[in-house]
Amino acid sequence: MKVGASDDSYYLPAETTREPVKTLDKDAFLQLFVAQLKNQDPMSPQDTGAFMTQLAQFSMVEQLTRLNEGMMQLRRTQELEEAAVLLGKQVKVQTGDGVVEGIVEKAAVIDDEVRIFINGCGYGLDQLIEVAEVAEAAEVVEVSEVSEVSGSEANDSESGSEPDPAGESSGATTVTGR
Question: Cα–Cα distance between 47 and 35 in angstroms, integer?
Answer without folding.
Answer: 16
